[in-house]
UniProtKB/TrEMBL annotation:
The modification 4-aspartylphosphate is found at D55. It comes from Amycolatopsis sacchari. This is DNA-binding response regulator, OmpR family, contains REC and winged-helix (WHTH) domain. Keywords: DNA-binding, Phosphoprotein, Transcription, Transcription regulation, Two-component regulatory system. GO terms for cellular component: cytosol; protein-DNA complex. SUPFAM superfamilies: C-terminal effector domain of the bipartite response regulators, CheY-like. The keyword Transcription regulation applies. GO terms for biological process: regulation of DNA-templated transcription. One of its GO terms (molecular function) is transcription cis-regulatory region binding. Residues 131-229 bind DNA. It holds the Pfam family Response_reg. PROSITE patterns: OMPR_PHOB (PS51755), RESPONSE_REGULATORY (PS50110). The keyword ATP-binding does not apply. Residues 131-229 form the OmpR/PhoB-type domain.
Amino acid sequence: MTESGRVLVVDDDETVRDVVRRYLEASGCTVEVAGDGAAALRAFAERPADLVVLDVMMPGLSGLEVCRRLRRSSQVPVVLLTALGEEEDRIAGLRLGADDYVTKPFSPRELTLRVGSVLRRARMPSVEPVAAEVSDGDLRLQPGARLATLRGVEVPLTSREFDLLAFFLAHPGVAYSRADLLEKVWGWDFGDQSTVTVHVRRLREKIERDPAKPTRIATVWGVGYRYDPVGT
């Protein structure tokens, strides 16, 4: 069983929509489907979902464009469906704020498990118990409210970005490999480690004064990444 919730499934292939819908409903989710990007945006505007399963390759509005437009007003978790071998689409989707992806052809059971994982993490106070509030200089994180502020202004973070930042703040000064972060933040013991790279890049764009010269999230060459507190 996965985490229950309202899921919007967007794919131009009716067979794919039907199979995904049946598996997710069997796991306890309420599912709405859309056959193209425009219909998906209308459906989400009328009844916001807890998670969106979104095919990248669709006629008209592509899945990437739909993801871009969703991110203008919502941090709803997004799981992309991408074609096998289309790495650029996966990376582009992650850069736009997608939380996860599954490559076609895919196992409906795997997709159901991924959806459950993303829903659970979106609802968790943080990746692990931390203080009610964590601060580092002008950066403040409230795990219970899933709220991050920088210099008093809210920082819009996806659920994965929030979890990654919460993990970094809970473990300052410790270097972690991408595989370590994939396991501890994503809960995966295997997977594409470029997911971590893209999320680190997005976090830097949101919390660093100069993302090209980060002072908080440092690259440890040959290892991975380390969070260095800036203090007051």
